[in-house]
Description:
By secondary structure, the protein is mainly α.
Amino acid sequence: MKTLRIxxxxxxxxxxxxxxxxxxxxxxxxxVKPLALEEIYTQPLCSGIVGYNDIVPLKITMADxxxxxxxxxxxxxxxxxxxxxxxxxxxxxxxxxTPSEAVGLDVDxxxxxxxxxxxxxxxxxxTMNDYAESHNPGIWGWQLLGVILSAASVVVFxxxxxxxxxxxx
Length: 169
């Protein structure tokens, strides 16, 4: 009988602990509705991503949660390599994609401008991954569901233990 009570307390404490830890872990992750038009700059987030000569800063314009434009900003890349990237249509491949689609897009570097185009691809992916994480929908719904299920489990388990104790007496 005493063992049964100890086990029920341990189970209730464990469920409560996991519910609280889940809530604390996801405390800062709120659902953020994308603005109608947003401009996101890849710097300083992508300051470690280097093209042929240096970083390639970008401005990514989002419209209703999708990429509407990727603009290559002033940079120190060799003009003929940058011209190949622009003429190769690399940045246009990201237009119309959601952040998660852009992160997963399998796109090849532009031949003859591999370092520059790889820097652009990596910068777009890193920036869109960061954007998607900060606009993570529905985390509060799952958090609330976890807390409700944990609380319900404790109540059901406690009621079952009370019934068992009553029947033993």
